[in-house]
Amino acid sequence: MLPTIFQQAVPVLKKLEKAGFEAYFVGGSVRDYLLGRTINDVDIATSAYPEEVKAVFPKTVDIGIEHGTVLVLEEGREYEITTFRTESSYTDYRRPDKVEFIRSLDGDLKRRDFTMNSMAMDGDGTIIDPYHGREDIQNGLIRTVGSPEMRFTEDALRMMRAVRFVSQLGFNLESTTLISLSDHSKLLAHIAVERKTMEFEKTLAGRWKREGLNLLVDTGLYKELPFLSGYRTQLKAFADLPGLDSLNKDQAWLVLLTYIGEEDMQAFLKGWRLPTKMIRLRSKELDILKERHTGWTKTLLYRAGLDAALNVEKVYGCLEPSSDFSVERVMEQYRKLAISSRQELDVTGTDLMVWADQKGGPWVKERLLEIESAIINETISNDKEEIRRWLVTCNRL
After folding, report:
1. I need a surface site. Which of 1, 105, 114, 300 has the fewest CB within 10 A?
2. For residue 330, what pLDDT is reported?
3. Are 50 and 120 in a shared domain?
4. Considering its fold, how many domains does the chain have in total?
């Protein structure tokens, strides 16, 4: 029996078929179904042209109609339905200069990147597999559909996708595909940084990231990634670090930054076009990691916050496996802190101004920091009256 996510979408296929068109599940969802992996969404391909799809379903949104994709709203769910198509030359090494809609499923499947992504499945669960993707999945191989040179010169990002799939699936690259990856690595320079970063982050999140990262280095693809061209030795050491595969994406970034050792890490990360929040968090964790080498203090734990502290401890244990590290102990120490944020203080800046009969200014922030430190280190308890007495006794009011 098909997984629920397919069963829910079968009526969509049936409606298209009833209207006289072909319709199939395609791409990653079919691949992941055969692999027994979790499927988060399904893509549908059809012989119906976009306007014909819109005529079949009452609720649609034109999300990429120039490329044949229509968003269909059916039974409270959303489905991206794309017309079978062929693609012309790719002068920018990323997007086809022209898309032509066709009625042939085989014509659509042969334009796709890898054999494992070039299968279709009908509503009864029958697999259409003209390029032997199922066999390659069984053999753990990533192979291009047709000539790897053609596939990579059409869309150079496919090379990063190959690396990402190695990291996610633990598959090997078929020999001619691997050779072509090295031969055409320089084409990756034509791809937008944001696209390369997206695939790189997925590689860092993979269960077999060691293999994926080694592939980046061995093929030379790393030279076309932001600021990494001069760091081959560091990348190899990063890829071969014991325990690397147990780290999540954020922790892997932190290890990489440690190996890179750039003076201006914020500038390095900005070059990857990463979100500002992510840059701020990784930079903070890197600073905390440097202090972690001398041991956790209550102040350091408080400054880090629980998520950052756990990331740092996991990375520290990976970098220093013989050290006395423990994620569980850090979690327990953090939970024993008197407060975990300034919002938990039993006093406010307004209280301080009233007590001191002074207007606000930098002194308020200074006093709050002093109060935080005293409470964290258990010099005083988090009690408004005790805090006031302490400030008076120490001549801080």
Report:
1. 1
2. 96
3. yes
4. 3
225 and 352 share a domain? no
Same domain, 186 and 147: yes
When pLDDT is averaged across residues 329-350 and rounded to a whole number, the result is 95
β-strand partners of 101:
85
The answer on 165 and 131 residing in a single domain is no
Q: Is residue 27 located within the same domain as residue 85?
A: yes
Residue 93 has pLDDT above 70, yes or no: no
Last residue of a domain, one of 138, 159, 185: 138
Q: Give DSSP secondary structure letters for 30-70.
A: HHHHHHT------EEEESS-HHHHHHH-SSEEEEEGGGTEE
69 phi and psi, to 5 degrees? Answer: -105, 130
Measured between alpha carbons, how far is 188 from 361 in angstroms, rounded to an integer?
A: 52
Interior CA angle at 240 toward 267 and 313, to 5°?
65
Sign of the CA dihedral running 340, 341, 343, 349: positive
SS3 (DSSP) at 213: helix
Residue at 256 is within a domain: no
Q: Which domain holds residue 370?
A: 342-393
Answer yes or no: is 171 within a domain: yes
CA angle 206, 210, 211 (to 5 degrees): 90
Burial class (CB in 10 A: 0-12, 13-18, 19+), 359: exposed
pLDDT exceeds cutoff 60 at 71: yes
Is 2 in the same domain as 129?
yes
Find the CATH number of the domain harbouring 183.
1.10.110.30
> Taking Cα atoms as reference points, which of 89, 36, 134 lies closest to residue 143?
134
8 Å CB contact between 269 and 260: no
pLDDT of residue 64: 84
What burial letters (b/e) apply to 11-30, b meaning 16+ CB within 10 Å? ebbebbbeeebbbbbbbbbb
- The Cα–Cα gap between 188 and 156 comes to 5
Rounded-to-integer distance, Cα 149 and Cα 114, Å? 12
- Summarised one tens digit per residue, pLDDT across range 253-309 is 999 999 998 888 999 999 999 999 999 999 999 999 999 999 999 999 999 999 999
Do residue 130 and residue 203 come from a single domain? no
In the sheet that 43-46 helps form, which strands lie side by side, from edge to edge? 60-64, 69-74, 77-83, 43-46, 23-26, 120-121, 127-128
Q: What is the pLDDT of residue 65?
A: 84
96 & 184 share domain: no
Q: Which of 123, 138, 153 is the last residue of a domain?
A: 138
- Quick check: 59 pLDDT over 90? yes
